[in-house]
UniProtKB/TrEMBL annotation:
Protein family per UniProt: Belongs to the sigma-70 factor family. ECF subfamily.
PANTHER family listed in its UniProt record: RNA POLYMERASE ECF-TYPE SIGMA FACTO, RNA POLYMERASE SIGMA-70 FACTOR ECF SUBFAMILY
Source organism per UniProt: Pontibacter cellulosilyticus
Stretches that traverse the bilayer: none
GO molecular function, one term: sigma factor activity
Record protein name field: RNA polymerase sigma factor
Gene3D superfamilies with a match to the protein in the record: 1.10.1740.10, Winged helix-like DNA-binding domain superfamily/Winged helix DNA-binding domain (1.10.10.10)
Length: 180
């Protein structure tokens, strides 16, 4: 068994066996990242493969710190680039027509498990889903999201609020209560 540092060094030397080990080490976690940003498994696989190629091509630029964080950032950026390239082909929703509900006293989202939440997130309209993932799951702030997506910071905040509202409505609609 090799350490992460040994695997990285092997990859920097373009050794295929170490690239395979790196792929095995991170493939499941990074595929989960890709799936959160797409509408289909096919799109997620495209992003996944493109991002891994970028990781291998730019691994010599890695200079320390959290390697998984460095890899994750490449995957998220690749997913965002995919979103930008395909945005014009995707159905555009008029978000102003979607009603917002008043927040409840109890945060329903905190009462479900992560697998259920991921299923619900994947059902969000794409604009909501991308911002929800970037803010809640990846930990970016609204300014960073606005820069990545070329939108106003207020739009990021609004889309996040609408995504949360949409998730709560979906939970209530499917009778998932605060007692879960």
């Amino acid at each position: 068994m090799y350490t992460e540092e040994e695997i990285i060094e092997g990859c920097k030397q373009d050794k295929a066996s170490f690239q395979e080990k790196l792929y095995q080490l991170y493939s499941r976690r990074m595929m989960a990242v890709c799936v959160r940003y797409t509408n289909s498994r096919f799109e997620a696989e495209d992003i996944f493969h493109e991002a891994f190629v970028k990781v291998f091509k730019s691994i010599n630029m890695y200079s320390g710190g959290s390697f998984e964080g460095w890899v994750r950032r490449i995957f998220v950026n690749t997913a965002i680039n995919h979103y930008h390239k395909n945005k014009k082909y995707q159905e555009q929703l008029d978000y102003s027509t979607i009603e917002e509900s008043a927040p409840s006293g109890e945060d329903i989202l905190s009462q479900i498990n992560s697998q259920e939440l991921l299923l619900l997130i994947n059902q969000l309209p794409e604009g909501y889903r991308v911002i929800f993932n970037l803010y809640v799951i990846e930990g970016y702030n609204h300014r960073e999201i606005a820069e990545m997506l070329n939108i106003a910071e207020g739009t990021s905040k609004s889309q996040l609020a609408k995504a949360k509202s949409h998730l709560k409505k979906t939970l209530l609609k499917f009778s998932i209560s605060e007692q879960c």
